[in-house]
Amino acid sequence: MYPYLPTIGPFHLFHLFTLGPFQPGTFGLMLWLAAVVATVVLHRNLTRNGVDADALNIVALVVVAGVIGAKTWHELQNLRELQFSLNIIFRPGWHHPLDVLVGFLAWFRDGFAWFGGLCAGIVVLMLEGHRARFKGPGWKSYEDPGPRPGPRVGAIRMLDLASPAAAIGYGVGRIGCLLSGDGDYGINTTLPWGVHMAKNALVPPNPPNALVQPTPIYELLFSLALCWLLWQLGKQPHAVGWLTGVYLTLSGVGRFLVEFVRINPRLYFHHTMSNAQVAAGISSLVGLAVLLLAQSRAVPWSAVAKSHDTKSATAHGAPASP
């Protein structure tokens, strides 16, 4: 994405910075910042819950899978356009591999769908949950877990642990969409906080000098509030999966509402709802189902740890604790 900022009120913040002839893309920079913030939040959550796992490694895998999933979901929405793009990418032929690579990178720099990234990220987190363990007796560090590792965290617990990080990471990442002008901004407006998009935005507004609603900023504010709420809720014991349900429900509601003031085309239900809005509605419904299932099963967070302690005590001839 291009390193140009919109005009915000009286401030004209166009060129971000340059390194000689190289201009870093703002979307990539904000994606990196989102990953850093998410890593910090996830690391703190793993630490306070006694989990022996590398937050940086988990976030890195989620980001890679999320980008691929988001791009895939976006492209599959229009197969004819995808075929046209691939024809252009491979037009130079395999005897010009550098030209093919440049074309591929140019194609891959924009066009991402939130729901695809969410689905891919969930899959990676669940796999990482099967690998991660709670800290066992004698644990010293991630490199020195002690003689007897703790019980595995599990897929759903990992989703609970990652929910605050996912919320804030998404919000920070959305600012990259605003800065690159890729069409995720809102409808024309006369509100005092409306922004002017740069003239070379990937999707310029109509007319070019129109003020538009900075919808990614709305999403950032919502995500910050959601992250704080999930962090506070995580301080109290809840059934396994309950926090995941809260995250899916509220994040879906936030995305559903912001779509009403976004320029995304209305494709469904007599042209009243966008593709992202339908996906957000599905996310909220799935979240509600997860909440109800978690409450009905009522599997406590401490169940694994207690089971592990009981087995350890029994193995050493000590009475099991209640």
Helicity range: 55-70%
Main pleated-sheet profile:
4 strands, antiparallel
Mean of pLDDT: 81
Multimerization state:
single chain
Q: How many DSSP helices? A: 10
Structural class: mainly alpha
Shape: globular
Number of strands: 8
Our measurement of the CA-to-CA distance between the termini, rounded to an integer number of angstroms, reads 57 Å
- Beta-strand portion reads 5-15%
- Give the H and E element order: EEHEHHHHEHEEHHEEHH
Low-confidence stretches: 1-22, 305-322
Radius of gyration: 23 Å
How would you characterize the overall build of this protein?
The chain has 322 residues and is mostly helical. The protein has a domain at 7-77 and 113-239. It has ten helices and eight strands. The chain has helices spanning 26-48, 55-76, 79-89, 97-108, 114-131, 155-180, 215-233, 242-258, 275-297, 303-315, and strands at residues 7-8, 11-12, 51-52, 133-134, 195-196, 211-212, 266-268, 273-274. Helix 6 (155-180) runs antiparallel to helix 7. The longest helix has 26 residues, at 155-180.
Give the gist of this structure:
The chain has 322 residues and is mainly α.
Task: Fill in the keyword field for this structure.
single chain, mainly alpha, four-stranded antiparallel β-sheet
Helix-strand layout with pairing:
Layout: E1 7-8, E2 11-12, H1 26-48, E3 51-52, H2 55-76, H3 79-89, H4 97-108, H5 114-131, E4 133-134, H6 155-180, E5 195-196, E6 211-212, H7 215-233, H8 242-258, E7 266-268, E8 273-274, H9 275-297, H10 303-315
Antiparallel strand pairs: 1-2, 1-5, 3-4, 5-6, 7-8
